[in-house]
Specification:
Layout (H helix, E strand, L loop, with lengths): L14 H15 L6 E2 L12 E4 L4 E7 L7 H11 L8 E6 L5 H16 L4 E5 L1 H9 L2 H7 L4 H6 L1 H24 L9 H25 L5 H27 L9 H30 L3
Parallel strand pairs: 3-4, 4-5
Antiparallel strand pairs: 1-2, 2-3
Length: about 290
């Protein structure tokens, strides 16, 4: 059983615990409770500790209980191993107990883009903050690994569940945005693209209305964070949608700069605010 500290959530000491936490956290992220642990201790795993399906397709996860970070060499070595996995994967996720690192993120992003152009599986890196945020969004699974937090959850259950509901809704909004904007954007026909962005705006407005109805049940600080999050996604999406309505179908290719600028605005601020929503839940789970 992993240990718990009132100051922060202690990282697991054993790689077995970390793999189990990663499997449950990714199961929450992808709404798939059937991710499979690959093999057993001592068996060669070809760069894959966990595998299963997400919104992209069949994916693999390599877990690294490395508090000091993951080197570029380790990442490249794991990719080579994963390429010999018995089934082709669409994406490789490298999960680590290390804190977020800008340089590692940039290396993985550039490498993934280059591999995508070559029609090879892409790479993502998941740091401890990413993993624990996903785990906390499902209190049942969080308490499976951190049962000593049960008292805090029970005493704050109503607020935790409400924040979890809001966080899940914000996750769905970001997933929708990723479908439409780079780097993960799909190709849509003009009519379909306009319809999708209009629908996205409606979902953002519905989310805003729901928060307004429930804001009295939430801490003032959290309400401010949520509305900052809503503004951080609604404004860029609005700009893009207005451009789509003004330009003709044959002119839409000229809007790539607008689309990329909107995505840049979203990615620079929305994800940080999104994490802050989850941090509020973590604080409630740690409050006895």
């Amino acid at each position: 059983m992993v240990q718990y500290s009132t100051g922060h959530i202690i990282k697991p000491k054993s790689w077995e615990e970390f793999e189990e936490i990663s499997r449950d956290a990714m199961g929450v992220r992808w709404s798939n409770p059937d991710l499979i642990m690959h093999g057993r201790p001592g068996q060669a795993q070809n760069g894959i500790d966990i595998y299963g399906n997400n919104h992209i397709g069949f994916v693999g996860i390599q877990c690294k209980n490395t508090l000091g970070g993951v080197t570029e060499k380790v990442i490249l070595d794991e990719i080579i191993k994963a390429e010999s996995f018995s089934k082709s994967i669409q994406q490789l996720y490298i999960a680590t107990t290390a804190p977020r690192d800008k340089n590692t993120q940039e290396f993985v992003r550039d490498l993934s883009e280059a591999r995508s152009k070559e029609k090879r599986f892409e790479i993502q890196i998941l740091f401890w903050d990413d993993i624990i945020q996903d785990l906390v969004s499902e209190p049942r699974l969080f308490l499976k690994h951190y049962p000593q937090c049960g008292g805090a959850y029970n005493s704050n259950k109503e607020k935790v569940d409400l924040i979890n509901e809001i966080y899940s809704a914000s996750c769905r909004l970001l997933d929708d945005i990723r479908r439409i904007f780079p780097f993960y954007g799909e190709k849509f026909k003009p009519t379909e693209l306009r319809s999708n962005v209009k629908s996205l705006l409606q979902k953002i407005n519905d989310f805003s209305s729901e928060v307004k109805q429930k804001k009295l049940m939430l801490p003032d600080e959290l309400v401010e964070i949520i509305f900052d999050f809503i503004e951080s996604i609604s404004h860029p999406v609005n700009i893009y949608y207005l451009s789509l309505t003004v330009y003709e179908d044959h002119e839409l290719h000229t809007l790539d700069d607008v689309k990329e600028d909107s995505w840049k605005r979203i990615s620079e601020s929305s994800y940080g605010l999104h994490d802050m929503i989850k941090n509020q839940m973590k604080l409630l789970l740690k409050t006895n």
